[in-house]
Amino acid sequence: MSRASLDKQPREVAAMFDGVARPYDRTNTIPSFGQDRSWRKAVRRALALQPGERCLDLAAGTGVSTAELARSGAYLVGLDISLGMLQVGHRTRPAVRLLAGDGLALPFADASFDAVTISFGLRNIVDTRAALAEMARVTRPGGRLVVSEFSAPVQPAFRRVYLEYLMRALPAVARRVSSNPEAYVYLAESIRAWPDQPALAAIIGESGWTQVGWRNLTGGIVALHRAVRRSPSAEQI
Ligand SMILES: C[S@@+](CC[C@H](N)C(=O)[O-])C[C@H]1O[C@@H](n2cnc3c(N)ncnc32)[C@H](O)[C@@H]1O
Q1: What pLDDT score was predicted for residue 31?
Q2: Which atom belonging to ligand 1 lies closest to the Cα atom of 63?
Q3: CA-closest residue to ligand 1 atom 10
Q4: 10, 28, 162, 214: which could join 225 in a potential S-S bond, CB 3.0 to 4.6 Å?
C-alpha cells in the first residue's frame, strides 16, 4: 500500500470526512466489530467528569463521542475540522455543542478546560505532537486527558488475524456498503502505521502531559491513554 495517502493535509482530511459524514454514524460499527458503544462508555468512565466541569471533545465529528460524554452532566464542547461531519451532527444531535476549528490551532484561551479528550481522531490529525501540545495548552494544570484510539492487539495470534481483517476484509466490506471505500483503505493503513501503546504513551509524555498510563479495550484493538496536564513550573525544571 502506498504511504502517500497517509501524508494528508488538514484540508484533504476534512474533505475525506466530508465525504463519509452522512453514513458515518451508521457505518461506524464496521471497523469496531460493533464495540464502539462500549468503547465510548469506557471513555466517559475514564474521564469521570463532574457536573460543572468543562470538557473539550476534539475531533468530535458528528458529535457521537460528545453526546456520550454529555451524559455526565459536565459542560461539553465538541470541535471538528470537517464542516460535513458538523452539519450531520447539528441535524442529528441539535442538543450537542459542536464548533468548527482546527485541533492544531484551537480557538480557546490557555487553561480553559478541566479535561480534554479525543476519540478516534488523534490518528487523523497531521501532527500528533502538536495536537497533544495544543490540547495541553487549553487544559488547566492538573486537568485530565483521555485519548481513545485504535491500537495494537496484545496477543500475537489475535494481532495477526486482526491485521489481516484490517488490510483485506475491511476494505472489501467497505466497497459494498460505503460510497467512499477509499476512506476505509486510509483507515486500515493509518491504524497499521499508528504507534503502539508504549510508543503513544511516550509521545504524550513529551507533549505537555504527565502520569501517562493506558488501558486496553477488546484485547488492545483500542487503547485508552490517560494523562494529567503538567504544571507550567514543572516544564521549566
Ligand atoms: C473518525 S472521526 C471521529 C469522530 C468522533 N470523535 C467519534 O468518536 O466517532 C475523526 C475526526 O477527526 C477530524 N479531524 C481530523 N483532523 C482534524 C483537525 N486538524 N482538527 C479537528 N478535527 C480533525 C475529522 O474531521 C473527523 O471528523
Answers
A1: 63
A2: 5
A3: 121
A4: 214
Mutate to test the pocket of ligand 1, among 64, 68, 80, 149 (most ligand atoms within 8 A of CB): 80
CA atoms within 13 A on the CB side of 162: 20
CB distance 229 to 208 below 8 Å: yes
Pocket test for ligand 1, best of 81, 116, 128, 129 (most atoms within 8 A of CB): 81
pTM: 0.93
Of 8, 9, 13, which is best to mutate to test ligand 1, by the most ligand atoms within 8 angstroms of its C-beta? Answer: 13
Judged against a pLDDT cut of 80, whether residue 174 lies above it is answered with no
Runs of H (alpha helix) within 51-169: 64-70, 83-92, 128-137, 156-164
State in Å: Cα 81 to ligand 1 middle: 7
Residue-wise pLDDT tens digits, 109-142: 999 999 999 999 999 999 999 999 999 999 999 9
Interior CA angle at 12 toward 44 and 62, to 5°? Answer: 30
Query: Who contacts 179 (Cβ-Cβ below 8 Å, separation ≥6)?
Result: 19, 23
